[in-house]
Design goal:
The chain has 475 residues and is mostly helical. It has helices at residues 12-43, 49-83, 87-122, 127-141, 144-159, 165-187, 191-216, 233-264, 269-305, 309-336, 338-343, 353-367, 371-386, 391-412, 421-425, 427-474.
């Protein structure tokens, strides 16, 4: 099925079948990142390679989330237009988002490429890691035009109910990524540069594939055509209105993570290796929560466009139920197997092997069992964004996540009881809980306002249609 309408029919089953390909897509992405780190950590022969990737990851994520934030705004515009059956706006929004996405990726990638070593130095990266981390980041940033195209296109596809295409594309490009990892690292001995180059090539392949899909779907309202490649002002402004708050939120979120990395840089080098492994493992649980955020955004936006507030409320309850239960299950499962999984990353000859594994376990204990809070946070944020309230979850996240975590770094982390990797990561579940409370409170306040607005618009349309019918009948 190339597109799906979620404004009619059942919700529980469609929610799960729509979210499942997104979950699998994100899990594949995490699996490929894990493969990258296993290859560079265990087979490169460079004991500093894994730590270099770890110290660069928060900076890479910061730039990536700038792109993803705006692409989410594009998805809201497409989804609302699709729900409202305004297919002309759907086409204009898709073409605007792809053209803007390419330009945005070029500019952001170029700036990040130039600033990479300076930002690494600012975060206090250790001297022995600087050259490796700089090389890793610069190769990734060279691929950001392709990264932007893929994310904007995938967001448009999800907006019309197609969550499967990105899964197929990512599965294919991911196999290529892993294969190139092995070639570059095992046979060409490229270490950090090898895994970065493999990732960059796979990004360009993904971008080409998703554009080929959109171009070949002639007759569909969201099909891409070079003859229509243009930036429409109204659609761009709407996309930015929804996307910029999300991008600011992601940016602030990653700024706090950069401060986290800077704080961890004050600890032993093996902690950075442990952080890389731990973030891979916790990323698996995070995939479930972020996937349901994307699902909720699409359900919310389509039904907002169709003026059906009651379906938005029901969708949120179902999304919370499914997302929380699945996240609890995967978090517990990852914690049970955290030791054998961690051992896959580390060379048996590494003198810090046992300390790294212990540190990974300590981080996992204070994060993995509580990822259901992250799931509830993301689902509620998706509901608000789909209804057009992008600023609300942005403010909540900036205060509850970024603000709280920065306070934790500067006030709690220096204390002896919290001056460790486990101590600093205690801030994660506490901050999720704070934002969940704030988001749900905002949804309660917004729900009545949205319901009144949509019902009045629906009644106005019915009165207009009736008057037109009566006028035609009298003629």
């Amino acid at each position: 099925m190339k597109q799906r309408d979620f404004t009619e029919g059942k919700l529980f089953g469609p929610m799960f079948t729509f979210a499942l390909p997104i979950i699998l897509t994100n899990l594949l992405q995490t699996a490929y990142n894990i493969a990258d780190n296993i290859v560079v950590g265990k087979f490169s022969g460079d004991t500093l390679a894994l730590a270099a990737v770890g110290t660069a990851s928060s900076i890479s994520a910061f730039v990536l989330n700038l792109v993803i934030g705006i692409s989410v705004g594009a998805g809201v515009v497409v989804s609302q237009a699709y729900g409202a059956r305004d297919y002309g706006k759907v086409s204009r929004s898709v073409h605007t988002s792809l053209c803007f996405g390419l330009l945005f990726g070029l500019v952001v990638g170029a700036i990040a490429f130039i600033l990479a070593p300076h930002v690494l130095i600012w975060t206090g990266v250790k001297d022995e890691l600087l050259s490796r981390a700089t090389l890793y980041l610069r190769i990734l940033f060279a691929a950001y035009p392709a990264t932007a195209i893929y994310n904007f296109a995938a967001s448009a596809l999800r907006a019309v109910g197609d969550s499967r295409t990105s899964l197929v594309i990512l599965a294919s490009s991911g196999v290529l990524n892993v294969g190139l990892n092995l070639v570059f690292v095992l046979f060409l001995h490229m270490s950090v540069g090898g895994v970065a180059l493999a990732t960059a090539i796979s990004k360009y392949v993904s971008a080409f594939a998703v554009m080929a899909v959109l171009s070949r779907r002639r007759g569909e309202v969201y099909a891409f055509s070079f003859s229509k490649c243009k930036i429409w002002r109204a659609e761009l402004l709407s996309m930015l209105r929804f996307g910029v708050p999300n991008s600011i939120q992601n940016t602030m979120f990653n700024i706090s993570n950069i401060f986290f990395t800077a704080a961890l840089n004050t600890l032993d080098t093996y902690v950075l290796s442990a952080k890389t492994i731990a973030m891979n493992l916790t990323g698996v649980a995070n995939n479930f929560s972020s996937s349901y955020m994307n699902a909720m955004l699409t359900f919310s936006a389509q039904n907002y466009g169709a003026k059906k507030p009651e379906r938005i409320q029901r969708s949120l309850l179902i999304c919370l139920l499914q997302g929380v239960l699945l996240t609890i299950g995967i978090g517990v499962l990852m914690l049970l197997f955290i030791n054998p999984i961690s051992s896959l990353y580390i060379d048996n000859a590494d003198a810090n092997r046992e300390m790294i594994m212990r540190c990974v376990r300590e981080i996992g204990v204070v994060t993995l069992p509580y990822y259901f809070l992250c799931s509830a946070m993301n689902a509620s944020a998706g509901a608000l964004r789909g209804m057009g309230y992008s600023t609300t979850p942005m403010v909540n996240s900036i205060l509850g996540i970024c603000g709280f975590r920065l306070l934790w770094i500067f006030l709690a982390f220096p204390l002896e009881i919290f001056h460790s990797a486990q101590g600093i990561y205690l801030a994660f579940p506490i901050s999720w809980g704070l934002v969940v409370i704030a988001n749900l409170a905002c949804i309660f306040l917004v729900a009545k306002k949205v319901k009144t607005k949509l019902e009045s618009e629906r009644e106005a349309e019915e009165i207009h249609h009736q008057s037109v019918f009566e006028e035609a009948k009298s003629v």
